[in-house]
């Protein structure tokens, strides 16, 4: 399938799904759920320009240092020689069960699973997935939040809609009620967001750089000296 992908006989989406499957990731296990990359960094423009490299995230860097400013802190964390555990850059993970429920909170059975995880109620509104631009902003401002995406971001518009009318509370700062997920300005609807996001995944830029992200998640930069150098060591 690598050969087919290189020859562009299969899409980036399909190739990532195959890699996830080979790596033992599956929709049937929330702790090993398929993982996909954040690929864009422009969530504010009126229109999304897929010919502009500046619209895209740097796929050669782990999401925790997508903002250059975090690189120094992340390096310093690693130096912490308590000696009790192996050294790591990030104390949380780019993919875990709680993260899957976080993104899919509006969709059953994930709603119920989320409530069980939070001892019988919804997590506080500010911590919920309420906006795509805000989620990216959190990656920019908070080196602790290193969640990558899930495949649904590229094909499943329903998870962005609060179809069941769950009471997800209000945001503290704006007192805004949490309902449907807030979309980037360039998306006219949930379907349009999925369409453009999928198009971005298949764009020239991503096709040229996706292998760099694959090295971090599935390849030789997962552990050992290459992982240390890439600031890609997880607890």
From TrEMBL:
> What is the protein's given name?
NBEL2 protein
Source taxon at top rank: Eukaryota
Q: Which InterPro entries match?
A: BEACH_dom, BEACH_dom_sf, BEACH_Domain
- Signal peptide segment: none
The GO biological-process annotations, alphabetized, read as: intracellular protein localization
MF GO annotations:
protein kinase binding
Question: Record's SUPFAM superfamilies?
Answer: BEACH domain
Q: May I have one GO cellular component term?
A: cytosol
Q: Which residues form a coiled coil?
A: none
- Keywords, in A-Z order: WD repeat
Q: Which SMART domains match?
A: Beach
Question: Which ranges carry the BEACH domain?
Answer: 1-235
